[in-house]
Design brief:
heterodimer; A: about 120 residues; mainly beta; Immunoglobulin-like; seven-stranded mixed beta sheet; about 55% strand; B: about 110 residues; six-stranded mixed beta sheet; five-stranded antiparallel beta sheet; globular
Protein backbone atom coordinates (compact mmCIF):
# COMPACT_ATOMS: atom_id res chain seq x y z
CA UNK A 1 0.00 0.00 0.00
CA UNK A 2 2.03 2.94 -1.30
CA UNK A 3 1.70 6.14 0.65
CA UNK A 4 3.49 9.41 1.28
CA UNK A 5 5.46 9.46 4.50
CA UNK A 6 6.49 12.50 6.49
CA UNK A 7 8.83 12.98 9.42
CA UNK A 8 8.64 14.13 12.09
CA UNK A 9 4.91 13.90 12.80
CA UNK A 10 5.15 16.47 15.54
CA UNK A 11 7.78 19.10 16.21
CA UNK A 12 7.94 21.61 19.02
CA UNK A 13 10.75 24.10 18.87
CA UNK A 14 11.73 27.50 20.09
CA UNK A 15 11.72 30.65 18.04
CA UNK A 16 14.95 31.07 16.12
CA UNK A 17 15.69 27.38 15.78
CA UNK A 18 16.08 25.61 12.47
CA UNK A 19 13.37 23.14 11.50
CA UNK A 20 13.70 20.48 8.81
CA UNK A 21 10.71 18.48 7.64
CA UNK A 22 11.12 15.45 5.41
CA UNK A 23 8.89 13.75 2.92
CA UNK A 24 9.15 10.52 1.00
CA UNK A 25 6.87 10.68 -2.05
CA UNK A 26 5.22 7.63 -3.54
CA UNK A 27 7.66 5.76 -5.75
CA UNK A 28 7.14 6.66 -9.38
CA UNK A 29 5.37 9.94 -8.75
CA UNK A 30 6.86 12.89 -10.61
CA UNK A 31 5.40 15.79 -8.67
CA UNK A 32 5.84 16.82 -5.06
CA UNK A 33 4.00 19.58 -3.24
CA UNK A 34 4.46 21.25 0.12
CA UNK A 35 1.40 22.79 1.76
CA UNK A 36 0.83 24.62 5.00
CA UNK A 37 -2.51 24.38 6.75
CA UNK A 38 -3.82 26.72 9.41
CA UNK A 39 -7.30 27.42 10.67
CA UNK A 40 -7.19 30.96 9.35
CA UNK A 41 -5.68 30.40 5.92
CA UNK A 42 -6.67 26.84 5.11
CA UNK A 43 -4.38 24.94 2.73
CA UNK A 44 -1.68 27.10 1.19
CA UNK A 45 0.71 25.87 -1.47
CA UNK A 46 4.30 26.62 -0.49
CA UNK A 47 6.33 24.85 -3.16
CA UNK A 48 5.90 22.50 -6.07
CA UNK A 49 8.39 20.23 -7.82
CA UNK A 50 8.08 18.29 -11.04
CA UNK A 51 10.77 15.73 -11.85
CA UNK A 52 12.71 17.18 -8.89
CA UNK A 53 12.87 20.64 -10.44
CA UNK A 54 11.23 23.48 -8.51
CA UNK A 55 8.34 24.90 -10.56
CA UNK A 56 6.65 27.24 -8.18
CA UNK A 57 7.69 28.44 -4.76
CA UNK A 58 5.93 31.78 -4.85
CA UNK A 59 3.89 30.87 -1.78
CA UNK A 60 6.96 30.45 0.35
CA UNK A 61 8.66 33.21 2.40
CA UNK A 62 12.04 33.10 0.70
CA UNK A 63 14.00 34.71 3.48
CA UNK A 64 13.44 31.82 5.87
CA UNK A 65 11.96 28.89 3.97
CA UNK A 66 13.70 26.59 1.53
CA UNK A 67 12.51 23.47 -0.25
CA UNK A 68 14.68 20.93 -1.98
CA UNK A 69 14.61 17.48 -3.54
CA UNK A 70 18.06 16.00 -3.14
CA UNK A 71 16.83 12.86 -4.87
CA UNK A 72 13.59 11.35 -6.15
CA UNK A 73 12.85 9.68 -2.83
CA UNK A 74 13.28 12.67 -0.56
CA UNK A 75 11.86 16.16 -0.36
CA UNK A 76 12.78 18.58 2.41
CA UNK A 77 11.27 21.78 3.72
CA UNK A 78 13.49 23.86 5.94
CA UNK A 79 12.70 26.89 8.06
CA UNK A 80 15.56 28.95 9.41
CA UNK A 81 15.04 30.80 11.67
CA UNK A 82 11.60 29.62 12.75
CA UNK A 83 9.01 32.04 14.13
CA UNK A 84 5.81 31.50 16.13
CA UNK A 85 3.71 32.43 13.09
CA UNK A 86 5.16 29.38 11.31
CA UNK A 87 3.16 27.14 13.64
CA UNK A 88 0.92 25.04 11.39
CA UNK A 89 0.52 21.59 9.93
CA UNK A 90 2.78 21.06 6.94
CA UNK A 91 1.65 18.54 4.36
CA UNK A 92 3.62 16.94 1.62
CA UNK A 93 1.76 15.49 -1.34
CA UNK A 94 2.94 13.63 -4.40
CA UNK A 95 1.31 12.84 -7.68
CA UNK A 96 1.79 11.51 -11.17
CA UNK A 97 1.08 14.39 -13.46
CA UNK A 98 0.29 13.13 -16.94
CA UNK A 99 -1.71 15.42 -19.18
CA UNK A 100 -4.49 16.87 -17.12
CA UNK A 101 -4.49 14.07 -14.56
CA UNK A 102 -3.58 15.86 -11.40
CA UNK A 103 -4.53 13.83 -8.33
CA UNK A 104 -2.34 14.37 -5.32
CA UNK A 105 -1.76 11.94 -2.49
CA UNK A 106 -1.17 13.55 0.87
CA UNK A 107 1.06 12.49 3.69
CA UNK A 108 -0.08 12.59 7.32
CA UNK A 109 1.50 15.98 7.93
CA UNK A 110 4.00 17.45 10.35
CA UNK A 111 2.47 19.50 13.15
CA UNK A 112 4.92 22.29 13.91
CA UNK A 113 4.71 24.41 17.04
CA UNK A 114 7.14 27.28 17.41
CA UNK A 115 7.20 28.74 20.90
CA UNK B 1 -5.91 35.90 -8.77
CA UNK B 2 -7.15 32.36 -9.09
CA UNK B 3 -9.38 31.12 -6.35
CA UNK B 4 -11.50 28.20 -5.43
CA UNK B 5 -13.94 28.74 -2.64
CA UNK B 6 -16.84 27.18 -0.86
CA UNK B 7 -20.20 28.72 -0.14
CA UNK B 8 -20.63 27.55 3.45
CA UNK B 9 -17.99 26.94 6.09
CA UNK B 10 -20.13 24.43 8.02
CA UNK B 11 -22.92 22.02 7.19
CA UNK B 12 -24.88 19.92 9.65
CA UNK B 13 -27.07 17.05 8.44
CA UNK B 14 -29.02 14.21 9.97
CA UNK B 15 -27.69 10.70 9.53
CA UNK B 16 -29.31 9.14 6.50
CA UNK B 17 -30.03 12.44 4.77
CA UNK B 18 -28.27 13.58 1.62
CA UNK B 19 -25.55 16.23 1.87
CA UNK B 20 -24.69 18.82 -0.73
CA UNK B 21 -21.48 20.79 -0.51
CA UNK B 22 -20.96 23.61 -2.99
CA UNK B 23 -17.88 25.20 -4.46
CA UNK B 24 -17.16 28.07 -6.86
CA UNK B 25 -14.02 28.62 -8.89
CA UNK B 26 -12.65 31.61 -10.75
CA UNK B 27 -10.38 30.17 -13.45
CA UNK B 28 -12.50 29.37 -16.49
CA UNK B 29 -9.52 27.53 -18.00
CA UNK B 30 -9.48 24.94 -15.19
CA UNK B 31 -9.82 21.48 -16.67
CA UNK B 32 -9.77 19.28 -13.65
CA UNK B 33 -11.42 19.35 -10.25
CA UNK B 34 -11.07 17.18 -7.21
CA UNK B 35 -12.95 16.79 -3.98
CA UNK B 36 -10.93 15.89 -0.92
CA UNK B 37 -12.05 14.74 2.51
CA UNK B 38 -9.97 15.55 5.55
CA UNK B 39 -10.63 13.86 8.85
CA UNK B 40 -9.31 15.30 12.07
CA UNK B 41 -5.57 14.78 12.43
CA UNK B 42 -5.12 13.39 8.93
CA UNK B 43 -4.11 14.62 5.52
CA UNK B 44 -6.67 15.27 2.78
CA UNK B 45 -7.89 12.14 1.05
CA UNK B 46 -9.11 11.92 -2.53
CA UNK B 47 -12.85 11.33 -2.94
CA UNK B 48 -13.75 11.93 -6.54
CA UNK B 49 -12.59 13.97 -9.52
CA UNK B 50 -14.15 15.36 -12.65
CA UNK B 51 -12.81 16.78 -15.88
CA UNK B 52 -14.22 19.80 -17.62
CA UNK B 53 -15.63 17.73 -20.50
CA UNK B 54 -18.08 16.15 -18.07
CA UNK B 55 -20.92 17.64 -16.06
CA UNK B 56 -21.52 14.74 -13.72
CA UNK B 57 -19.59 11.88 -12.25
CA UNK B 58 -20.70 9.29 -9.76
CA UNK B 59 -18.82 7.24 -7.26
CA UNK B 60 -19.86 5.14 -4.35
CA UNK B 61 -22.50 7.27 -2.55
CA UNK B 62 -20.91 10.43 -3.96
CA UNK B 63 -21.72 12.47 -7.03
CA UNK B 64 -19.90 15.52 -8.33
CA UNK B 65 -21.72 18.00 -10.55
CA UNK B 66 -19.91 20.57 -12.62
CA UNK B 67 -21.55 23.64 -14.10
CA UNK B 68 -18.96 25.38 -16.26
CA UNK B 69 -21.33 28.16 -17.24
CA UNK B 70 -21.44 29.54 -13.71
CA UNK B 71 -18.13 27.99 -12.62
CA UNK B 72 -19.66 25.96 -9.88
CA UNK B 73 -19.28 22.41 -8.67
CA UNK B 74 -20.96 20.45 -5.95
CA UNK B 75 -20.41 17.27 -4.03
CA UNK B 76 -23.44 15.22 -3.13
CA UNK B 77 -23.21 12.51 -0.51
CA UNK B 78 -26.10 10.08 -0.39
CA UNK B 79 -27.34 8.59 2.88
CA UNK B 80 -24.81 10.52 4.94
CA UNK B 81 -23.18 8.49 7.70
CA UNK B 82 -21.32 9.53 10.88
CA UNK B 83 -18.09 8.45 9.20
CA UNK B 84 -18.65 11.16 6.61
CA UNK B 85 -18.05 13.83 9.23
CA UNK B 86 -14.97 15.71 8.05
CA UNK B 87 -13.84 18.84 6.27
CA UNK B 88 -14.38 18.71 2.53
CA UNK B 89 -12.21 20.65 0.11
CA UNK B 90 -12.71 21.30 -3.54
CA UNK B 91 -9.64 21.92 -5.67
CA UNK B 92 -9.15 22.97 -9.26
CA UNK B 93 -6.08 22.92 -11.44
CA UNK B 94 -4.37 26.28 -11.65
CA UNK B 95 -2.49 27.85 -14.49
CA UNK B 96 0.84 26.55 -13.14
CA UNK B 97 -0.18 22.89 -13.14
CA UNK B 98 -0.76 22.93 -9.39
CA UNK B 99 -4.03 22.55 -7.51
CA UNK B 100 -5.80 25.48 -5.91
CA UNK B 101 -7.75 24.54 -2.82
CA UNK B 102 -10.80 26.13 -1.30
CA UNK B 103 -10.94 26.75 2.43
CA UNK B 104 -13.14 23.78 3.21
CA UNK B 105 -16.61 22.99 4.50
CA UNK B 106 -16.95 21.16 7.78
CA UNK B 107 -19.64 18.50 7.57
CA UNK B 108 -21.17 17.32 10.83
CA UNK B 109 -23.50 14.33 10.84
CA UNK B 110 -26.02 14.11 13.66
CA UNK B 111 -26.99 10.57 14.71
Amino acid sequence: DARVTQTPRDKVTEMGQEVTMRCQPILGHNTVFWYRQTMMQGLELLAYFRNRAPLDDSGMPKDRFSAEMPDATLATLKIQPSEPRDSAVYFCASGLQAGDYNEQFFGPGTRLTVL
Amino acid sequence: GESVGLHLPTLSVQEGDNSIINCAYSNSASDYFIWYKQESGKGPQFIIDIRSNMDKRQGQRVTVLLNKTVKHLSLQIAATQPGDSAVYFCAGDGSQGNLIFGKGTKLSVKP
